[in-house]
Amino acid sequence: MKKIKVGVAGYGVIGQRLADGVALQGDMELVGVADVAPTLSVKALKEKGMPYKFFTAAPERQAELEAAGIPVSGDLDDLVRQSDIMLDATSAGVGAKNKLLYEKYGKKAIFQGGEKNTVADVFFHGYANYEKGVGADFLKLTSCNTTGLIRAVDCLDRAVGVEKVAITIIRRVADPGDYHRGLTNALQIDKAPSHQALDLMTIMPHVEATGILVHTPVTHGHIITVVLTPKKDISVAEALMYFDGHPRIRLVSIDEGFQGNASLFRYARDLGNPRGDMYEIAIWRDSIVKSGRDIMFAINIPQEAVVIPENIDAIRASMKMQLTRDEGTAETNTYLGIGKWKIS
Amino acid sequence: MKKIKVGVAGYGVIGQRLADGVALQGDMELVGVADVAPTLSVKALKEKGMPYKFFTAAPERQAELEAAGIPVSGDLDDLVRQSDIMLDATSAGVGAKNKLLYEKYGKKAIFQGGEKNTVADVFFHGYANYEKGVGADFLKLTSCNTTGLIRAVDCLDRAVGVEKVAITIIRRVADPGDYHRGLTNALQIDKAPSHQALDLMTIMPHVEATGILVHTPVTHGHIITVVLTPKKDISVAEALMYFDGHPRIRLVSIDEGFQGNASLFRYARDLGNPRGDMYEIAIWRDSIVKSGRDIMFAINIPQEAVVIPENIDAIRASMKMQLTRDEGTAETNTYLGIGKWKIS
Amino acid sequence: MKKIKVGVAGYGVIGQRLADGVALQGDMELVGVADVAPTLSVKALKEKGMPYKFFTAAPERQAELEAAGIPVSGDLDDLVRQSDIMLDATSAGVGAKNKLLYEKYGKKAIFQGGEKNTVADVFFHGYANYEKGVGADFLKLTSCNTTGLIRAVDCLDRAVGVEKVAITIIRRVADPGDYHRGLTNALQIDKAPSHQALDLMTIMPHVEATGILVHTPVTHGHIITVVLTPKKDISVAEALMYFDGHPRIRLVSIDEGFQGNASLFRYARDLGNPRGDMYEIAIWRDSIVKSGRDIMFAINIPQEAVVIPENIDAIRASMKMQLTRDEGTAETNTYLGIGKWKIS
Amino acid sequence: MKKIKVGVAGYGVIGQRLADGVALQGDMELVGVADVAPTLSVKALKEKGMPYKFFTAAPERQAELEAAGIPVSGDLDDLVRQSDIMLDATSAGVGAKNKLLYEKYGKKAIFQGGEKNTVADVFFHGYANYEKGVGADFLKLTSCNTTGLIRAVDCLDRAVGVEKVAITIIRRVADPGDYHRGLTNALQIDKAPSHQALDLMTIMPHVEATGILVHTPVTHGHIITVVLTPKKDISVAEALMYFDGHPRIRLVSIDEGFQGNASLFRYARDLGNPRGDMYEIAIWRDSIVKSGRDIMFAINIPQEAVVIPENIDAIRASMKMQLTRDEGTAETNTYLGIGKWKIS
């Protein structure tokens, strides 16, 4: 079988992980990655011995790349030409500009949550609306919080139906290593409703959603609390059963030692995952409570890696590699090693 | 009129503020404060020139107090004897022991949220169940989060009735100056339901409540999001109107510059309040959203000072200074200067 | 005696405290404060009942001030005209622009550390070079770290002479309430030598200085470690004696409970100081160690308030209110209540 | 050649990394690791498929291990019996107790910095005193800060001689994932001199050392500033040359993007190192400054992994695998892949 050729534009926090994820897919070939300058991530690529080809997205800064000794395999045009589909993980707003290039060469592309919805034909989530993405030329992924949240909501929705959700996003404000943003000893609130609630309604229009987002000065994962009104009354045990059946959801508990987002960050490092990443969201067993018919629970979102599987799903949908949600996500999961674990 | 004589046991974060609050009441007299050692707070009392008399709660440590030059007006027994009622703000568990002393001298007492409910005859909140406290000998106050939360829930409950609430407590993990506890770059989750939800149901048994608590590494105020199901559908404007009418609730907005808990902490300092404290909770206008009949909003809880007014209310109730909620809380508010402000 | 009329331009973190400090001086009159918009600090001024007159520095934004209900006593020109001398605490760079206005009306002015040295005739420190400022029209104060550092270095320099210093500044990265800057779980290093070392050499040209600055994610005070080579060998006890004799230096110890910058922040709040501020730097007794002739010690810098006394000194020097360092600083200290304390 | 059999007691932050480091040595065999309970690290070992054998150090808690499904290969006695030498990475104080067991079976052991010096025959550092450890039965390693610090000081000492050092340790207060310790918005100072300065003098008795330690609320690496008086005056360029020649020192710069400790943490993750670890200390090129003959510079200490190489060195010395510092450390470096990099 001919492998699908994938290029990655933007080699930052998300771009690096997308490249690693694609490289693990047996039916895909990573053509290379592109960025504009010899950032620390690009320097690390060099120190590792260039496992991926590097293309420059800013040929006018060639001198900087040479000074840093980065081998360059061509420019962004070259990468696009050599690829069947592009994963665009550039800074918000750049994707819309890059789209012109993708169109010029007649290539498909997947954009990230930071871009405007109008950049894409389909606002995509691997589990919630895979079929909408099948064959589409331009897909936009949901952001990290929304991606993780929808996994859980879609899971219960398919099981018993969901009427409405009210979410509180306790957002990590920066990634490890970020110096361009941060909060010090402060919680910061955004105007409600949060965009994640609105985005959930775009992807799952039959669910009513609202929410409040509060930024917190930490780097290792968002925590979302969800107050969810199911269409049919379910017990905590049933909810656990449904979540347990989802390959991209881990059930964890405080008693096991998972005291918060930092426990999960450490656990993933101890697992030896590349970069200490985790693709799965976690739901705390001992967070699940009921109030009337409503069910309330807390999710951990590993913001750096959580969107990688749904991005791979998007390639599968767009390139018609698999035509259904179950087949597409299963293939992604297999290659990423998702679902093999069983903590307790 | 004879002033009610009040003693304060425990001169830490809460005890200091209780003393300041009592000293402001025109119909009360602060007999003095007691603590076990020359802590920094006691040293600050001395540097200020001993505005309050100090009684030692650990006569065996007299030498330490002398070494620090703290003038001692007697021991805890003396303080209790000279007082009509004691505000006990000692560390959790000590209050139960002190109660024996209060009983010995036939004095009433008010305990804080850290004590077990069994220490008191009444679990008290100035606005939610003032009348229950009238004439009672031993009252226990709700904790800081519960105190602030109940203000808001009781406010809507009296207006339109409340069926149920699901809360997310984004808890500040330490007070400014704390070195004995703290989190670094981590969110920590507690087993659900949070005790604040259970406590709310004890005070307001007709409301169903549940909740999840997440500790965050900040010091300037908790933020609580509330998903509240009113008995009667109300608009956001109506909710604003009800909140605006409550003397111990400030309505603030992000547009004004109140970006989070730290803005409120700074604002209170800029006001010149003693210790930069704020007695009122704040509710963000731009956090209030609806989902079906449910109404969702975010509260800021200034944890160091929020319980002071309800403690003063408790004295009024216990000593039968005022017999009704409206009269008792109004008197407290007047002396504390609550309700004079009008930001926008 | 006719009081010196002082205006304050910029009503932020520093401007508010300058206004409070001037208001305490028996021989000065605070004409008023100016700012460009109804910030939270200006709203707090209003909620306090306008103890100071407010002048607008941006008449074109008059509508915003009216909407916020801020009484306006005139514009910045009016304030300058009514003042004998201006304290300029505007954002870095604005002072240079304002200087044209001060020159237009023939008024003197004091600028803060953020401005370029060229804005002023004299780079000023109340203790290190008071006499240089006497009669000067435009003075620039040292920044908060440099101001505190020079107090300690000048203290030893006058006692025994100082040859050189090597400093490590552990810098708080934001003030309480700041949302426009911050670090999350990261230390950040600046290129060496730090500007504070260079500034020290400008003020004290006979001392050789170098240093490294590291930003840390906290808000309650910088800590500076100093490795100081005195001209004459002194013991730790002698150093303590010299520091103890300086009115603007507090000696504290870990054993007393001063575990770090946050202890001092809390202590100042407990003292009931306006805004919980502290004018004095603190030096930890138990941080002072020797290595050969070198003496090493750690200073706490309360960044919000530390420069206030030296600013008042600058007014005294510039206006020739006192002609010598000892007289000028003593007068400032008396009115600010500095030096009355004695912790241990 | 027969491989040296190594056991690891304690499978926490350090123990895990020691096990990984030993497993990479071509001339050593990792017999297995021991711990007392199914901690998250042990659960991660299981999820990875048990690459290392697990021995229980608390047979009485066997039921917990079984409940967690951890395959157990024996108890701590078994591990000791099967090993030639033990790396003891248990909690401080436990090592002294374990020593009895090692003596019982006539096995050598390496202890970590948390144990008392008396537990060992030699207080060891791979570069500073390798030869002292040759053939010794019980060695104690320096702590993470001291290990990294000594690398740099020893490097200059061998080149030009070092007379004295004054250090400021800006200490990260917790490791990623720690919930049992932490600071929130506070710097905390220890009594001077810091133990690291004293330890340096124990290892390098010809150098005079003192220092101050300040805890900061971050998790990704300590930063130490060093004021070092060399015996012979050297230029910054010479210092750079000496540091550059040391295999376990990386020279980095702010201009490259290394803005602080978090940049290095991220860089190591991007490198794909196991757990995102880094064995090398980093020295910022642009932190090196001079004051008279003194040279000042800043070091980054990656606290989780920095001591691993020196621990491996200790095995080599104790087991007489190599008899000299140069041969021993070179072998360790080769197997750990240290010194292959060249960032700029």
TrEMBL record, chains A, B, C, D:
Keywords: NAD, NADP, Nucleotide-binding, Oxidoreductase. Its EC number is 1.2.1.12. One of its GO terms (molecular function) is 4-hydroxy-tetrahydrodipicolinate reductase. GO terms for cellular component: cytoplasm. It is an enzyme of class 1 (oxidoreductase). The keyword Transcription regulation does not apply. It holds the Pfam family DapB_N. GO terms for biological process: glycolytic process; lysine biosynthetic process via diaminopimelate. NAD(+) binds at D35. SUPFAM superfamilies: Glyceraldehyde-3-phosphate dehydrogenase-like, C-terminal domain, NAD(P)-binding Rossmann-fold domains. The active site is at C144 (nucleophile). Residues 4-144 form the Glyceraldehyde 3-phosphate dehydrogenase NAD(P) binding domain. HAMAP family: G3P_dehdrog_arch. NCBIfam families: GAPDH-II_archae, PRK04207.1. This is Glyceraldehyde-3-phosphate dehydrogenase.
